[in-house]
Sequence to fold (1139 residues):
Amino acid sequence: MKLTRKSNAAPVAGKPALGISRRQFMKHAGIATGGIAAASLMGTGMMRRVEAKEVPHDAPIEVKRTICSACAVGCGLYAEVQNGVWTGQEPAFDHPFNAGGHCAKGAALREHGHGEKRLKYPMKLVDGKWKKLSWEDAINEVGDQMLSIRKESGPDSVYFMGSAKFSNEGCYMYRKLAAMWGTNNVDHSARICHSTTVAGVANTWGYGAQTNSFNDIQNANAIFLIGANPAEAHPVAMQHILIAKERKHAKIIVVDPRFSRTAAHSDLHCAIRPGTDIPFIYGMLWHIFENGWEDKTFIKQRVFEMESIRAEVKKFPPKEVENITGVSEVDVYQAAKLMADNRPGTVIWCMGGTQHHVGNANTRAYCILQLALGNMGVSGGGTNIFRGHDNVQGATDLGLLFDNLPGYYGLTTGAWAHWTHVWDLDMAWVKNRFDQTPYLGKDPMTTPGIPCSRWHDGVLEEKSKLAQKDNIRMAFFWGQSVNTETRQRDVRDALDKMDTVVVVDPFPTMAGVMHRRKNGVYLLPAATQFETEGSVSNSGRSIQWREKVIEPLFESKTDLEIMYRLAQKLGIDEQYTKRIAKENGLLVIEDITREINRGMWTIGMTGQSPERIKLHTQNWGTFSNKTLEAAGGPAKGETYGLPWPCWGTPEAKHPGTQILYNQSKHVKDGGGNFRARYGVEYNGQSILADGTYSKGAEIQDGYPEFTADMLKQLGWWNDLTAEEKAEAEGKNWKTDLSGGIVRVAIKHGCIPFGNAKARCIVWTFPDQVPIHREPLYTPRRDLVTKYPTYADMQVHRLPTLYKSIQDQDFSGKYPLALTSGRLVEYEGGGEESRSNPWLAELQQEMFVEMNPADAADRGIRNGENVWLEGAEGGRIKVQALVTPRVKPGVTFMPYHFAGVMHGESLAPNYPEGTVPYVIGESCNTAMTYGYDPVTQMQETKASLCQIVKA
Amino acid sequence: MATMKFLCDTKRCIECNGCVTACKNENDSALEWGIQRRRVVTINDGQRGEASISVACMHCSDAPCMAVCPANCFYRTDDGIVLHNKDTCIGCGYCLYACPFGAPQFPKKGAFGSRGKMDKCTFCAGGPEENHSDAERQKYGSNRIAEGKLPMCAELCATKALLAGDAEIVSSIFRERVAYRGAKDAAWN
Fold:
């Protein structure tokens, strides 16, 4: 077949769309926003980067294997380096996740080797002017400031904001740095990303992670996406979704207030009102229970307390669901029937589900849907929870969180004892690093710190209401964009009020420029992940090793070097790096990976030694794009990236676990079952699995998690070696550093974490079953009495408001529902991607999507400037994008923009030559209060606003 | 001898713009801000029936640009790739009139948008200058064809919607997909 032009065939051209497409819209947007002018700007007196065009074509090429740093799909690519310059990017067709494919961000990755807009050297703000600083002075001044604040206000007055962009080793060492400084005031963007997932899902069946893999979606017969838009946020995931659609005729159901680019490929789109996920899921379950479509055997054997859910679901008959969610009975029925008829089906969710003040309950509701359908622990099923940043899974696993140590050990004395043991340190020394005085009855060492979402409340809140000695007075913003946090006006006030602000980042970021300070801001240029090496965990728990592509540009330093230098300055480096070798004054990164392996028993991040990770990355072409398994080659039989749990020591050669809770496999081959994490009984009922177990298990029923005593009772104690016995005595599978308990359990076919049911009720949470609660800022006042929010409460260190906000009616002045989300061209706070000209060119204006009806009511035409005011009074000036993509009464904004506030440009605040190509209002200036009571997730998906013509 | 063609599978295109930035990445040396050799066009945006297609020069067998060019600056390679010579191009824009796909691009620099030399997709095959010479890189961008590689846009496509290569191979890949999907979901519906 030859493609030839037919004489009279008209060129492809549909009828003009109603509205206007985003691309057309952007075409009209001002190109002069800074493009041409900015593109040629080069800071004066800067050291110049070497440009690709200056390298001769035939210079020898070195090929490096690296991993995209945008989202958590983990796409691999080949970076070509000539004379030390990143001159080429070639597709890795043999990479098992992406088969060479990339979205706009991945395809523009090489721009990282240019870094025109990057910070070039350390700087500090002196009387309103940026002044160059040597690294030595910078570390000394920052360290001195830390020590003086410690003296006056204690260790908790220094805040450690970390990053999902760190390597695993970086995440781990940052958490360790905070621990050895003596605070739990450490967190990162997972707090405002999937924290509610981690809490909700882990409390349902054991681990708070994606249960299957991107590739496994190819095996699904139905794909249910709620609050997820992979076509923009995880484009390469669509490769697998569309293959399932093509090959298996998988049905695609999208639940989203917008008709997203993902919905464009769906069989059914249900546009729920923002913040009504639980009624929608209960609406589906109503039909499932009514028609007997639930998997009764699965529920009986593997699910605890589905009865409580049945009782709650009865309150949500079709009429009520339609009234709350705005989705018709026919569509809800159809969604339920498609899922029931096309098993196994997978459920995918992202920020649309998690970023709510009821986020943890949303995620539990999604899990319960899968439990009812019996879709868990099977290929093609599961909850495929897509993480947002390239290493947010790793950062979460490694405890870069305000309420955890690495491996989700928590902050109990036992958890500290375990990690102190891993670090080879004296517990008394570690304990003494902390403030010893309890505040509001809470002990600083064992009480969660202040969350990423609310560090500004830690600065601004009255001291007496905080469960710590003093306010936060100094903060590190290390690879985190503060414009991703709601209530930007408070964020700005907090930045103004602190003694010292330290930004460690390749870019100045908003923390460096949105304040009104004249002094006391430090900008320390960090290297990107392409200028260092280390391991990175993708959303599917697979770990890959990024090779260093180029040397750090300008005067940038790697995260690990900056951390180490700070530790030296603070006088804790000896303890901090006790088990880690140094070479040329730098830490040996593989030793850090090994220390991670030494302590991470809970999730089985123990078998992925640096050697094994590198072996996989170097041989990624031997792993199947369908099954992720290597049919041959040096890693034969293993799963790509050794997804955790990768049980036991590296020598045990566990192949990794692609699908969690999969009983059809032996644990030694990656099998599993739901985890026994919540004891063995509740109110006299057993919560262990009922007559079901993973393949080859010698205990053919439910069983609790393994301890030394349990091995003795089972008569398996003597399977341990003498050394293992010495270490394992009195320990459990999570704390036995010899790995003997894990080894012996697996030898008998048992899962070290036990075999229990998944639970539909969580008795330690504010809501035992997921309960619908109207958003704090709801447009439906008529539903508030029936579905009220929580009473105000103290969460860890901070007072948290609920009822006192919802009691006020904002819906008159602010009648439009407001939600936010991603664009494919940008990522996170956007400071990096808006500084990439290849991306910035495609999205030059901040905008708000509004329905033609709402626009007409306000006399607003497409492309006009409007003032959007959030329900707390934050005002932003943006362009109107009038489109049927959102329903009447609903508006949407992307969250990647920053650099303009209340209509005023912040460009003059940037150091010379670092203003991104594109700046715009942050949607979070208009976004409002609202926090999940379990995790302090912020509410960015359901608020209110009013829009007027500017 | 190959006949090089592009094909964009509308059932797979998700408008992620990977092809657009891939082109920028690969042909950076020849492209300035505002020039996009490739772009993604969406119809029915934001409503049922929304579909996207990635468009650039289609390297027509009977290329209208070539037929109308008064300066005769176009030529076709043995592989059926339509290229042009920027040294002889007079920037009249007649090719833009003729092209059914809007492929020809013009620099946007200058106060009144003075037109300058036309630029368009080269199928990553450079131009009339010596392969991989500085002149070729500055005027036309990369030359992957000379290295035995295919255009960057298609090679990096996130969902394998955009295919490039010998028409026979491209069509056999697409034919296989259509066989799985059935006629109803073949391309546009």
Summary: The radius of gyration of chain A is 27 Å.
